Structure formats: C-alpha cells, structure tokens
Amino acid sequence: MSDLLQIEDLTQESGDTHRPTLVERESVDYRAIAKHVGRIGEGKKYLIKTYGCQMNEHDSEIMAGMLEEMGYQPTSVNEEADFILFNTCAVRENAEDKVFGEIGRLKPLKNRNPELILGLCGCMAQEEPVQQLVAKTYPHIDIVFGTHNIHQLPELVEQARNSQETIFEVWEKAGDVVENLPKLRKDGIRAWVNIQYGCNKYCTYCIVPYTRGRERSRLMEDVVEEVKQLAADGYKEITLLGQNVNDYGLDLKAYDFADLLAAVNKVEGIERIRFTTSNPWNFSDKLIQTIASCEKVVNHIHLPVQSGDNTILRRMNRGYTREYYLDLVARIRRAIPDVSLTTDIIVGFPGETEEQFRETLSLVEQVRFDGAYTFIYSPRKGTPAIRFREQVSEEDKKRRLQELIELQNGITREFSESMKNQTFDVLVEGESKTNSDVLQGRTTTNKIVLFRGPKELIGRIVKIHVTEAQTWYLRGELVSTQHELAV
Ligand code: 5AD
Ligand code: SF4
C-alpha cells in the first residue's frame, strides 16, 4: 500500500479532520471541583522541570500556582526538593530520552529520601508505552497524570503521600474546560493566556492530537476576563495560546479568532497582543484584516510551513499546497506590509528526496522568513508517518538540517542588518541575562534589543535607535519613552 493511500485511510477512520464536532459546552470552575487538601505543602519545596512548548510552560505556571496554594515554596535544587515534577513533551524522541535519563539519575536521591515525591505529567504521560515503561523500569515515580487532568494535582500529591505504589491518573479524553485555575506567572510584564486546547489536524508526523485531544475553545468572556485581570495586575503584553489559534471558536459556533482578537484589543492597559500558533489553514481574509486593523495586535505571525514540497505536504496531511501558502503570505504582506513571518520546518520526513528538500530551501528563499524553528523528523509511535516506508538516513537528515539552518541564518542576519539605523518601539522586559547594567526588550516583531537605560523603564515601551545588528539580537540607544513622545 502506498503512503498516500495510508493517509486517505486515516482520514476516513478519524472522520473529517478539518471540522471538529460542534458541541454545546460550558466551562467548570476549578474552585468548585478542586478537592481541598489543605496546606499539605507547608514548609516543603517543589521543583517543576518543563520541556517543550509554551503551552507546557504555561501549564507549569498553573501547577506552580496550585502547589503554592498548598504551601509549597519553589526551589531549583533537586536535593532541596520535596516534590519534583517533570512536565514533559512528546513531540520528538530526544526530549523523551532526556526525561528518562534525568528520572533515572534521581533514583539514588529517592532511595536516600523516600519522602521525596516524583511526578511525571504532560504529553509523555498520555502515551501508553510511556506508562508501561514507568510501571516496569521507573517504579520510583510516585504520580503519573496527563494533560487533561492537571487540575487534580493537589489530590494526587495527597494520595502519593499515603501510597507505596505509582499512581496513574491519565484521562484518555478531555473533560470540560476548567476555569479559574491558580497561576503563578514568572514575569510581571508578559503573560500567556490559553484560548484553546487540543488539535484536530492529525498531521501524520505529529503526536499532539493524541496527547492533547480534540480542539476545545475557552469561552470568549472567560478569556477577556482573564486579560482584564492581567491588565489590572500591570501586565503589558499577552500571548494567546493554542495549537491552532485560527480555529478558535469553531467548536462554539458563536464567534471566531478574529472576533476574539478584536475583543481583547479593547482591553485597556494591555499594549501588545501576540498569538501562537496560527496555521496556514483557515487563515481568513477577515483574520488578516483584523490583525492589520487592531493596533495592539503585533505585526508578527508564526506560520508553520513544515515543507516546501507539495508531495511531502500532502503526505504530512497538512491540507494546503506550496502555492496556497505563498499566496497566503502575499495576502498577509499586502495587508500588513511590515509583517514579520516566522515558521517551523521539518527535514527528513519519510521519503523526502533531495529534490523535495530543495523545494523547501527554495520556499525559504522565496518567503524570506525572519526566523525559523527547524527540526529533524522524529518518528513517533502511534502516528501514521512511523509506518511510512523509506525513512531518510540520519546522515542525510543532519546534512539537510545544517544546510537549511545556514540558509535561514543568513536571511535572519540580513533582516537584523536592515533594522540598523532605524528606530523601533521596544517593550522593556528587564535586565539583560548576561549584564545587569544593560536592559533587554523586544520589538513588536519579537527581536531582542539590548540598550543602556534606567531600571524604571522596565515594563514600559521606549523608542530605541538600533546601532548594531547581530543575528539573534540588536543593540541600540534610548531615544525617548513612548509616554514622553505622546505628551
Ligand atoms: N518530528 C519532528 N518535528 C516535529 N514537530 C512536530 N512533530 C514532529 C516530529 N515528529 C515540529 C513541527 C511543529 C513543531 C512544534 O514541532 O514543526 O510545528
Ligand atoms: Fe496539530 Fe499538525 Fe500542529 Fe501537530 S503539527 S499540533 S497535528 S497542527
């Protein structure tokens, strides 16, 4: 059977992958369903190790919020911790290997301190082979829970204190969207806001639809309420998070992502709105116009292309062609001329020939992305692509990745150079990580800018004249603050 036929079979099996089932749904209040366990973490410390995407980073902020409500305090040292939680990613195999390596190394610590609780959650926890491996090889893990039942963390910790066995609590399917979860955001200026969970797309290489479930949107009023609260707390920038943000609202029937952007754009106090990840499908003209016309929505779109070759795109089940993607880019650029586009690209998808890889290079040259996250294809158990014949050799994958990175780095560098001697609005995030005398901020297009200035500027938008360009960051001089200019 050819790979193409395999994809068609898959699509039939899983129904129409481009339309989620429309359902009536209400959200549930965490405060109403949380099992109250009291402050059982008083005097104790926790450490969460987060792998993978921004969604996971934000889930870790939620779990940190729950743990601190239980009395736990944070630590970054394994030996000091009473609870170590691995919030894991399943997208690529090497991330999984790293997690098991670290968990294995914690065994002596657990032997010395049997009171230590070890937890595994996130996308890996949803995978059955991982659950089996934990049961067989890593029984020193106390709790395994999935992406759909994060809100149960407090009761699971309580159970683990009284149990010698590993507790597995992994819901296969998502329940209701849970609202009012506690959150401990690290940064007081920029915040992530979930708008949608799960993915319906079933790209043939990707494990996410299996680990995060079907698409579920949060109600618009709940998202807007959270953003208002963030504005009241002094946050200046929000990033709306979802696997497919431009599918937002399809399951609710009442409104779409463009409507949500317009609503969030009205929240006073928030100055910048980002979103990730948007996908090439379903990227409507209404959405493009909304991004162009909402002054707080930044001129940056992360638009994963994955490959520049039509056969590979088809076999990836991406649902668009190279021509469609290029036309979409042209439509976006017509409406938002200063837009910055970034992307994700996979090299070495099964059966990818040298010519097909060259199509990806040529698309990169044609679009001229500001930046790209580039990945070597990683076969994932449970996804259709693992069954595709003609896996590309490791050597070819590595060489292709290197060639792609070199091409993209050159383009990114040229973009940075083109910003020299121009002035940009920069949201000041804090001190530079390497030099506390220097401040760090970002342009609307997400370029890092380093400059000297007083610490009072942190959290404000300032004008910076760019004097030096490196590939990944710019250096500049303070011109004035936006506030002063407005007066
Ligand atoms: N192998 C390599 N990269 C992958 N991605 C998703 N699944 C895989 C895989 N099996 C990449 C895609 C996606 C990004 C988040 O991770 O490029 O956009
Ligand atoms: Fe969903 Fe495809 Fe993105 Fe995976 S790569 S999360 S399947 S859209």
TrEMBL record:
Q: Which residues belong to any copy of the Radical SAM core domain? A: 185-414
PROSITE patterns according to UniProt: MTTASE_N, MTTASE_RADICAL, RADICAL_SAM, TRAM
Entry EC number(s): 2.8.4.3
Sorted alphabetically, the Gene Ontology cellular component annotations on this record are: cytosol
Q: Which residues bind [4Fe-4S] cluster 1?
A: 53, 89, 123
Q: Which family does it belong to?
A: Belongs to the methylthiotransferase family. MiaB subfamily.
Q: What is this protein called?
A: tRNA-2-methylthio-N(6)-dimethylallyladenosine synthase
